[in-house]
Every structure is written in structure tokens, then in C-alpha cells.
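Slide 14.
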Amino acid sequence: MKVPIGDASTDATVYRAAPSGGRGLVLAHGAGAGRKHPFMVAIAAGLAARGVDVLTFDFLYMHAGRRVPDGNDLLTACWRAAIARAREVLAPRWLWIGGRSMGGRIASQVAAAGEPGVDGLVLLAYPLHPPDRPERLRAAHLGRIRVPILCVQGERDPFGPPDELGPHFPRATKLVPVAGGHSFAIDDALLDGIAGFIRER
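Slide 15: predicted structure.
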């Protein structure tokens, strides 16, 4: 389906749960691969099989076939448009947002800005800083987030391993270390944990 963004639009995919119990998740891709990447498909399909409706979408630069991400304002506008589309299509009682790497970072900025009706965040491989540049933190907004956060992070992630992330996130954050680096495997235990975290809240 299409997600309108001003005068433009991008593509989205819905993964329906049966039943969902009113829980929905909007999930964004990372900087280098779109919503059809196997990681995104595995997460979305796996959560749908566990009772969570999922909508994935492409940022405008990815939809246009460009390699370089858009600026922060346009990425944020795309996120807000995807949230609005999810409310129309999924009609969730509880709406979570999140994503992999850059997609999750922009989602966290949207949540920190107080986007209405966002009930929680699912962050996968959060990019705390560029590799080998720990001084360039992307964390100033994190303390303003007032919804539950689940953050899944590879133990050897060059963008920030779990022990680096902990001090920057709100105290209520559930930080889940997993084997791997900035990429990690999707298995039943991980999917069960994400779905369970959403259900509990």
C-alpha cells in the first residue's frame, strides 16, 4: 500500500496477526536496506505470527532508489506519515514504533518529541555513535522519552555495545544483549521476547 507524505508517497507492507488483540507496531528499516530486506521481513512476519499487527515502510530516499538517506526533517516527516497510515489501516488500541538502526533512531526522536498515541518503542541495533567515534553520541533526546523501550543490541556492535547504551537510556528501558555485531540473528526466542514485551504493556 501507499503512504502519502505531502506531495509524495512511499510503499508500505502490512503483516496481519490473527488475532492481534489490538496491538500494532510500525517498523522502519536501517540506512542501507529497505523494508523487503530479510531481517525486516523476518521480524515483521515473526511478530505477526505472535499476535502483533506490523506495518513496515520505505523512507523516501529508499523508495526513489537513492543510497544516501534524506535529512533528519524528511526522515521524521516520513515516520509521522507512516504512523498516521498505520492508525488508519491497523486501527490499533496500542501502537508501538521502532526499527533497525537509523529507522529506530528516528523513531526514538519522534517518541521523544511527544508524538501522540505512541505507547512504546522497539529498537533493534540502536546506533549510539558512528564506529570508532564514541564522542559523537546520538543520545541527547533519549532522556525525554516517556514510553517503555525495548532495545535489542549486539554484544559486539561497533555503533555501541550494550554496556555503552545503558547509561543513556531511561531507567525503565529493557536492554537485551544478543550475540553478534550491528547485525544479529532472528530466532524464536528473540521474537517471543519482543512480542511478550509488547503484550505485557
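Speaker note: The first strand starts at residue 2 and ends at 5.
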